[in-house]
Design brief:
Elements: E1 10-13, H1 19-28, E2 32-35, E3 40-41, H2 48-60, E4 64-67, H3 70-82, H4 86-95, E5 97-100, H5 103-111, E6 118-119, H6 125-135, E7 141-145, H7 152-160, E8 164-168, E9 173-174, H8 180-190, E10 196-199, H9 202-211, H10 216-225, E11 229-232, H11 235-242, H12 256-269, E12 272-276, E13 279-283, E14 287-290, E15 293-296, H13 299-310, H14 318-324, H15 331-345, E16 351-354, E17 358-361
Parallel strand pairs: 1-2, 1-10, 4-5, 4-7, 5-6, 7-8, 10-11
Antiparallel strand pairs: 3-9, 12-13, 13-14, 14-15, 16-17
Length: 368
């Protein structure tokens, strides 16, 4: 059963392509979803750089073609069709050795009536580079299909080994026309309102961190501490974060469905569970499960419960709880938030008032 497994969690989707599919998968599992596309794709048919690179590829007559993504390879052929170049491009590709960076480009290559010479099992350009350098490429004519941004180091290494390289920018990423949703998401992460953020491309990670602006340091702190989970579809996507020492989670298979499965497994594993007043309380991002029944909480009530759960059974003073409230305020605000929390929990038995000292969770005695 997957329905409801992510109830109480808020997950952000930064992808543009397949955003609706990811949202549906997460919502089916009970998550609250926030979308903020960090990048957008330049339409291929309008891309003069791709047109020029396609003509250069045909003129070069490559010995070897590196296909990095299935989406990009298909889009390249579709764009060439619109320009009347598809037949000539297929002829050129058919005479070349085609190397695929994993199974997805293999599928696109075969769908085009072509065949790959071999595919990188690790789905990385590092594996491709190692093999090409080992076999020797001096004097070889190589076409590299990019995947969202220039493959600078990969191409430089090929040229240093003596190859003539044409780069094909099959699709290019740019910032969205309106970056307000991205900035809003960064503020939400910094404010502790997001439990996990999903990334499906390295350019999206870079763009997100750039657009985050003043909230950037707080966002990185939330990621670094693990309070907000950074979930990436694979190591290439994760690199801009891991290079900064930020921990990430990723699936063993670099696929969207596997990424959702990883989140489905990982988020519930990180929750706090306590036995309080005869009930099992499980704290999630914006809700608490009481004996597996979800109770959605307002931010102030959730902040109070989280603070109490951080010191289970101990008295937490009003001053400490004031500091935990989203907007601070005073002791009266704490009393109001506690009252609302008790109402949301359906009973006052879970939280004990300790006169002139503060509040505490009424933990069950494990020995009883």
């Amino acid at each position: 059963m997957i329905e409801g497994v992510l109830t109480g969690f808020t997950v952000a989707v930064t992808a543009e392509r397949r955003r609706d599919e990811m949202t549906a998968l997460l919502e089916r599992r009970g998550a609250r979803v926030v979308t903020a596309s960090a990048i957008t794709i330049v339409p291929l048919a309008d891309d003069e750089a791709l047109h020029a690179a396609t003509a250069a590829c045909i003129g070069l007559g490559p010995d070897l073609v590196v296909a990095t993504t299935g989406f990009g390879f298909r889009g390249w052929l579709e764009a060439a069709e619109g320009w009347g170049l598809a037949e000539r491009l297929r002829e050129v590709l058919g005479r070349a050795r085609i190397i695929a960076r994993g199974p997805k480009p293999c599928g696109a290559i075969r769908a085009a009536g072509l065949s790959e010479d071999w595919a990188a099992k690790t789905e990385s350009t590092d594996e491709i580079l190692e093999r090409l350098l080992a076999e020797g490429i001096a004097g070889a004519r190589i076409v590299v299909q990019e995947h969202g941004e220039p493959q600078t180091e990969f191409v430089a290494a090929l040229r240093a080994a003596g190859a003539a390289v044409v780069e094909v920018p099959v699709y290019r990423w740019v910032l969205p026309p309106d970056v307000t949703p991205v900035r809003r998401l960064a503020d939400q992460i910094a404010g502790g309102q997001i439990d996990a953020v999903t990334f499906t491309s390295a350019p999206a990670v870079k763009a997100f961190l750039r657009v985050a602006g003043d909230a950037g340091p707080a966002v990185l702190d939330r990621f670094g501490s693990g309070h907000t989970l950074a979930a990436c579809v694979g190591p290439v996507t994760a690199a801009p974060l891991t290079d900064r020492g930020i921990p990430v989670v990723m699936p063993e298979r670099y696929r969207l469905g596997a990424l959702i499965k990883t989140l489905t497994d990982e988020l519930p594993r990180r929750t706090v569970k306590l036995n309080v007043a005869g009930s099992t309380l499980e704290l999630r991002g914006h809700a608490v499960l009481i004996d597996a029944v979800p109770h959605t909480l307002a931010p102030a009530a959730m902040a109070i419960l989280t603070s109490l759960a951080a010191r289970p059974g101990a008295v937490v003073s009003k001053d400490q709880l004031i500091a935990a409230l989203p907007r601070g305020n005073d002791g009266h605000a704490v009393d109001v938030a506690v009252a609302r929390l008790r109402t949301a929990l359906g009973s006052g038995r879970h939280i004990e008032t300790v006169i002139k000292r503060g509040y505490r969770l009424r933990l069950d005695d494990p020995s009883s």
